[in-house]
């Protein structure tokens, strides 16, 4: 660039000041659009040598919920111990939203064990299976064939639920919820040792028999947990569908005939 005479340099400086260029940054102009020279990329540092780190509790694999349920159920030597094992089982979140743990009612030495669906609102409040209006209907049904939840010996029944806790909004149970609680249900049946299982609902049929479709299964003897099992319509279903009471009566007569066969 040719040197400027003093007059031209002064005029140029005044023009720059008028344009707002009132601060000198460097002695020489810099072309900001020119690409900088490429710098060599430094080699990455060598990785540190591998060392064996001790496995901490946080790094250990999580306990399998079903395996732990199997273990806890197996060591329960009585119904009271099984109840405590369920209360101490930490892996099923249903317990967090339930008001009570619905375990059982009736005579644990009875010949008949009735397993119902997961507890509803009334069962959750009462703390025992088959409560409220549906429980009152069940009591009338049993009385028609000489059985009662407060009966003893041959006149008694033992009542349980497929799950011990109410499901949120009474939704259907998830497969993992059923799987982790199934060992406790199986052990419950083993400890009670009934002669006959009555499965009142789709949920106990699915858990014990591995099949659903109660309206097709009802009234037909099958086997569950190694015992004679009779699927039956639950009282809550009969309250919604009064026309099905005829089928329920037929099933009750079938149960009575199995308990007291004619000579």
Describe the structure.
By secondary structure, this protein is α/β, with parallel strands linked by helices. It has a single domain, classed as 3-Layer(aba) Sandwich (Uracil-DNA Glycosylase, subunit E), CATH 3.40.470.10. It is 40% helix and 10% strand. It has eleven helices and six strands. A six-stranded mixed sheet has the order 1-3-2-4-6-5, with helices on both faces. Strand 5 and strand 6 form a beta hairpin. Helix 2 packs parallel to helix 7. About 5% of the residues have low confidence.
- Provide the CATH top-level class: Alpha Beta
According to CATH, the homologous superfamily is Uracil-DNA glycosylase-like domain
Low-confidence stretches are: 51-62
**SS field, number of helical segments:** 11
Helix content: 40-55%
User: What coarse outline follows from CA principal-axis ratios?
Assistant: rod-shaped
Radius of gyration, whole Å: 38 Å
Offer a few descriptive terms:
single chain, 263 residues, Uracil-DNA Glycosylase, subunit E, six-stranded mixed β-sheet
SSE layout:
Layout: H1 6-18, H2 65-75, H3 79-87, H4 94-97, E1 104-106, E2 112-116, H5 121-126, H6 132-143, E3 157-161, H7 175-192, E4 196-200, H8 202-209, H9 214-217, E5 222-224, E6 227-232, H10 235-240, H11 245-259
Parallel strand pairs: 2-3, 2-4, 4-6
Antiparallel strand pairs: 1-3, 5-6
Helix pairs in contact: 2-7
